[in-house]
Design goal:
With 341 residues, the protein is α+β, with helices and mostly antiparallel strands. The chain has two domains: 105 residues, no CATH class; 222 residues, no CATH class. The protein has seven helices and 24 strands. The strands form five sheets. Strands 1, 10, 11, 12, 13, 14, 15, 17, 18 and 21 form a ten-stranded mixed beta sheet that branches. A hairpin with a 2-residue loop joins strand 8 and strand 9.
Length: 341
């Protein structure tokens, strides 16, 4: 998924003061016509709510005006000036231009001068990731595959590798190296984040994005929450999740071309869309569950493995009230590849 300065229709509000931070993710403000405004930025999502005139910030009738993903998951920093600029609101009648304010905020440039690609995909635990990285190496002749190890103080040591191993959690494929910096890197000297990011004219990061739990398929969860008592029959295909990311100056034609090549390789290597089935009845709940961020896309090889035994699932779960799916509470479900893609 591509990210840069988000294209949001200006809200046209006038605030009485800058949005004030309220914790790590929230900002509060009031409009000049005395409406409370709550802004949340977290997980890459920007959410804006506004209440009735002369209401407090905790008013129960706060209306959601905007909810849009504007950055990759993990992007943490955004300043009040940048919020006002992006949303198209003024402060005491003054238009806000944040172009010169902290060009980068812990890995993200809100000015629009940088474009990012980031996507997340499921792969087989053995061999699948290595083969994908090899396709990238073949597509970019003369590229250098390195493996950074980050230590204290934001310093890194890197080594050059010829191929990815199943035990490797991170690798970076770089083209157009800076001679002095690549020499320093490959000599084993410690380098800073800035030096690492400047070593190559174009770089693709490939990262094993471990699950927050050790139950990525959900099989253990539903077993412990009633599936055993229901005597449900299900099997799961094990997988790993990897994150792919790249960035380039937005106006750079070479960067645009290289990212286009990257995306074409991704599109040829992964499938999208899951069929969701009620494990208790066998009925299909959703024919094609998709997501814009590709966090549920799966490799062609993983789909081929599933085809050898179509009764298996990539994920299983049990729906609860208020979850993101909107299915009836208490349903045991399984998500599997779509046979026709």
């Amino acid at each position: 998924m591509f990210y840069s300065r988000p294209a949001i229709e200006p809200l046209g509000w006038d605030l009485t003061d800058w949005p004030m931070p309220d914790g790590t993710r929230y900002f509060n403000a009031f409009t000049s016509d005395h409406r409370p405004v709550s802004i949340r930025f977290g997980g890459g999502w920007l959410t804006v709510k506004r209440g009735p005139k002369k209401a407090s910030l905790d008013h129960p009738d706060m209306e959601e005006i905007l909810c849009v993903r504007i950055a990759p998951f993990g992007t943490m920093d955004i300043e009040p000036e940048q919020i006002c600029d992006i949303l198209g609101v003024t402060v005491n009648g003054n238009k806000i231009d944040s172009a010169g304010l902290r060009v980068r905020a812990r890995g993200f440039d809100w000015s629009g001068r940088t474009t990012y690609w980031e996507s997340t995909h499921l792969m087989q635990p053995d061999g699948d990731a290595r083969e994908f990285v090899q396709r990238l190496c073949d597509a970019f002749p003369g590229s250098i595959l390195v493996q950074p190890e980050w230590g204290s103080g934001g310093k890194s040591r890197c080594r050059q590798i010829k191929f990815l191993m199943a035990s490797d959690d991170v690798a970076a494929l770089g083209t157009g190296p800076d001679d002095a910096l690549i020499q320093k890197m490959l000599n084993g000297q410690k380098i800073s984040v800035e030096e690492f990011e400047s070593t190559f004219a174009y770089r693709i990061d490939f990262i094993h994005d471990g699950w927050p739990t050790d139950d990525p398929t959900g099989a253990r969860y539903i077993h412990d929450h009633g599936a055993r008592e229901q005597n449900l029959k299900y099997d799961v295909v094990h997988h790993r999740r990897y994150r792919i990311r790249a960035e380039y100056p937005t106006v750079d034609a070479e960067g645009q071309s290289r990212t286009k090549t990257l995306v074409s390789i991704i599109d040829a290597s992964f499938c999208r869309g899951l069929q969701v089935v009620n494990l208790q009845t066998g009925a299909v709940i959703t024919e094609r569950l998709e997501d814009g961020a590709d966090k549920w896309s799966y490799s062609v090889a993983l789909r081929h493995e599933w085809l050898t035994k179509p009764g298996r699932y990539l994920f299983v779960g049990k729906s609860v009230a208020g979850d993101d799916f909107g299915w009836e509470s208490g349903i045991f479900w399984g998500a599997r590849p779509i046979a026709g893609v």
